[in-house]
Design brief:
about 450 residues; mainly alpha
Length: about 450
């Protein structure tokens, strides 16, 4: 009994430590991975005791599928079940991790070859208010293709090349958090949480896009409108002296444009490949990476410039943020542990008794995602509420659709509430209090407006 209820306590304490990463000075990836190992260790050491209290409903089917396990003692059967559950959980989580890793690799290839300078050069406006709309719209669109985390990294890099004033750049950077999360909510590949819902069979591409794009667009519109009014009318940005490019001569503007189009197209085609050929999303994005890999490596090997060797994709892998991938591994594997021992199903039954309306549950989870990791919340929700045949919890049901919007955009309420917010916070050294005073109320207003539109329409 003690270990069963100790597991969620360990999970909650781990999430709190992740949220307070800057205070405890322990990398969130280390916390997440350590938490998952501890939870699975408890599960393996006392499987019989845990399942004596809460026997999984599919335990009998598991034993029937492996006749040789029927002769084992109850403790032996429980241990074997946990072993198989661990392997299955790792396989399920790996599809998400490979998708994230391949997406990060594509962004790194494009960035190293200066492909994003195509975007920088295309921005001609100097007006601060107009730039707010330009950056907000661009971030909103790109986050649906690249994912909100990759998009904010790209947009902050673009901001540094265009805007010299630190105070102005902080405002635009915070705007990218709002619009990146808004854009990520209506796309199946826009955020790790929406990716989980899509690959888990909770949402389909066409349903998510058609039902959430209006709410997400309204969110972004309100954010851009308010942020643009922070700048005096008619004010312009100062010109930035750009550093001379050290890229090899064969990397022309045309070549960069081609790479950018291939990279964006490969990500945008992932849902199409999945729909037409039933190709898993992680394989679709890996295909896009392979295409870029072949093209860029052939060009690099043909060049006589020594700098071209640094642009080989195999050399660029060292720049990938592996800690982020390990963080997702730890979080998702931890949630699978709670699902395996039956805690999430028990929690869902208790929550249903307290709150009958699934839409209210989604709204509350969205608010919670502002200080708790939204990946963990959505993964836990998927474990708590199995896909039903009908009603709000069926595939494309109202609960899952509204949860996609709330979990992603709700993370913008606080700067620590989303991976994109934490990333911008680190890149531009934005304080928690600065964001809380200037942007949390904008995020709350936008969040509420988008939610009202969804509830009125659907």
């Amino acid at each position: 009994m003690f270990l069963f209820y100790a597991m969620p306590i360990i999970f909650v304490l781990g999430i709190i430590m992740i949220a307070l990463e800057d205070v405890v000075h322990i990398n969130k990836a280390a916390t997440a991975v350590g938490m998952s190992i501890l939870l699975w260790l408890i599960c393996l050491l006392d499987a019989a005791g845990l399942f004596a209290l809460h026997t999984p409903e599919y335990m009998e089917n598991f034993i029937a599928g492996f006749p040789k396990f029927a002769a084992l003692s109850p403790a032996g059967q429980a241990y074997r079940y946990v072993e198989v559950a661990l392997v299955e959980a790792l396989g399920d989580v790996s599809t998400t991790l490979f998708f994230v890793l391949a997406s990060m690799a594509i962004v790194e290839v494009l960035d190293s070859h200066g492909a994003f300078s195509v975007i920088t050069k295309s921005i001609k406006s100097k007006g601060k208010r107009r730039l707010a709309w330009t950056f907000g719209t661009l971030t909103f669109v790109l986050s649906a293709l690249l994912g909100n985390l990759a998009t904010v990294i790209v947009m902050v890099a673009v901001l540094r090349k265009l805007i010299a004033d630190k105070s102005d750049r902080m405002i635009y950077a915070c705007l990218t958090i709002l619009t990146a999360n808004a854009g990520g909510s209506w796309s199946p590949i826009g955020d790790v949480t929406t990716l989980l819902l899509w690959t888990g069979g909770n949402l389909t591409v066409t349903h998510q896009v058609s039902h959430l794009i209006l709410s997400s667009a309204l969110y972004a519109t309100i954010a851009c409108t308010i942020v643009s009014l922070m700048f005096p009318k008619g004010s312009n940005i100062q010109d930035v002296v750009l550093e001379k490019s050290h890229l090899p001569e064969y990397i022309t503007h045309k070549y960069q444009t081609t790479l950018l189009l291939i990279g964006l197209s490969s990500l945008a085609m992932v849902p199409v490949f999945q729909s037409l050929f039933n190709l898993p999303p992680f394989m679709g994005v890996l295909l896009g990476l392979v295409i870029l890999w072949v093209i860029t490596d052939i060009k690099a090997h043909k060049s006589h410039d020594s700098a071209s060797r640094k642009l080989l994709v195999s050399n660029l892998f060292s720049k990938l943020d592996i800690s982020t991938v390990l963080f997702f591994l730890g979080i998702l594997m931890s949630v699978h542990t709670l699902k395996t021992v039956g805690f999430l199903s028990e929690l869902s039954m208790g929550l249903n008794k307290l709150i009958a309306d699934p839409n209210i549950i989604s709204l509350l989870l969205g608010v919670c995602s502002s200080f708790l990791d939204n990946v963990a919340l959505v993964a836990a929700s998927m474990g708590m509420y199995p896909i039903a045949e009908a009603g709000p919890f069926m595939t494309d049901g109202t609960f899952w659709t509204f949860l996609a919007y709330c979990a992603v955009t709700g993370g913008s309420l606080l700067i620590i509430g989303s991976a994109s917010g934490v990333t911008v916070m680190g890149m531009e050294k934005i304080s928690f209090v600065y964001y809380l005073k200037k942007f949390s109320w904008i995020a709350l207003l936008s969040y509420a407006a988008g939610a009202v539109v969804y509830l009125l329409l659907f």
